[in-house]
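Run log, item B.
One chain of 123 residues. Sequence copied directly from the ordering sheet:
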Amino acid sequence: MQKYKHNTKSNYNSKIQIWTYHRYNYGRYIKLICLIIVLFILIHIIQTGLFLMKHFTEDENRSNMIKLDMHIWQSLINEQSKRKIPRYIHQIWISSKTNKEIYENFRIAANACIELHSNYNYT
């Protein structure tokens, strides 16, 4: 004669405990993954901020900002340039008061991107 498991109160409680245990563990894994993602984003933001603070100061003229940065990048064109130039800077902003300065800054940015074999967007 085959014995059937009766759905007793103790059996029911143990199933709930097992289900709760698994749910708790999955929740811990999800929290861990979310924490890793948040840390990655924070590190990315900090690296970008440090790069910008290193290369730009408050007393710089905005129209010369891109020219200065392009000269820094052009001076790094050697074997070290691929390691030193941050790939997380995706845009180069060009702003000037006159069209001549805009054209000059655009030309410098374009030449630097071509020399670095970069796919940066310059606006």
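Observations after the first pass:
- Residues 7 and 13 are 10 Å apart (CA to CA).
- The chain has a mean pLDDT of 65.
Flagged for discussion on Thursday.
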